[in-house]
Write a structure and sequence with these properties.
Layout: E1 26-33, E2 41-43, E3 46-53, E4 61-63, E5 66-73, E6 86-93, E7 106-113, E8 126-133, E9 146-153, E10 160-161, E11 180-181, H1 194-205
Parallel strand pairs: 1-3, 2-4, 3-5, 5-6, 6-7, 7-8, 8-9, 10-11
InterPro entries: 5peptide_repeat, PA_immunity-related
Protein name: Quinolone resistance protein
């Protein structure tokens, strides 16, 4: 996976609200630190080579958002609408994205580390070279999505919905869940641990294991 091509230590401070009034407006080459921007509507904002830290971006409507070479650290993007977003070389660390919507999106070279993504929506989204590490994804909706070179490591996937999403190349052994919504044919080839195998055997085969 390719990391964002930026050096946060040399980026000048910038104000996110400089792009609040125009469509297709570009925000580039800057650091957004300790800012609060909520309930803002932007159409197709483009953000390139930027660093966000300790910033609240919840409840915003950034439809068709494009992020390229961007880092988010300790930020809150909860309940935001980011439908049809495109993310290239983006990192999220210690971020909160509860209830955020990324339906019909495209993610390439994106990482989530120690993030809260409960109730987030990634339906019909294409993922390429994406990692989820030490993150909470309970009740996530990821239906009819495409996963290519995607890794889930020590994540909470309880009650996540992967209906019509092929998990054949996924390794879920380090993840935890008591329930997972998935079609049995989409699990072929998926690597699971013993407890997970027992769950699926009971779920799909109604086997009684004593």
């Amino acid at each position: 996976m390719n990391a964002p091509k930026i050096d946060p230590t040399i980026l000048p401070a910038i104000d996110l609200l400089t792009i609040r009034t125009a469509e297709d407006q570009l925000l580039a080459n800057g650091a957004v630190v300790q800012q609060t921007v909520t309930n803002l509507t932007l159409t197709h904002p483009l953000i390139e080579q930027c660093y966000f830290e300790n910033t609240i971006l919840s409840e915003n409507d950034f439809e068709r958002l494009e992020l390229t070479d961007v880092i988010f650290k300790n930020c809150d993007l909860s309940n935001g609408n980011f439908e049809q977003a495109s993310l290239y070389r983006v990192q999220f660390e210690n971020c909160k994205l509860v209830g955020a919507t990324f339906d019909d999106g495209y993610f390439k070279d994106v990482s989530f580390k120690n993030c809260q993504l409960n109730l987030a929506n990634f339906n019909a989204t294409k993922f390429t070279a994406v990692t989820f590490t030490d993150s909470r994804l309970s009740d996530v909706n990821c239906m009819e999505s495409t996963l290519k070179q995607v890794q889930f490591t020590t994540c909470d996937l309880n009650n996540a919905d992967f209906t019509n999403t092929n998990l054949s190349k996924q390794d879920l052994r380090t993840c935890e869940f008591k329930a997972l919504r998935v079609q049995p044919f989409d699990l072929r080839g998926c690597r699971v641990n013993e407890l997970q195998a027992l769950y699926f055997a009971n779920q799909f085969l109604q086997l009684r294991i004593e």
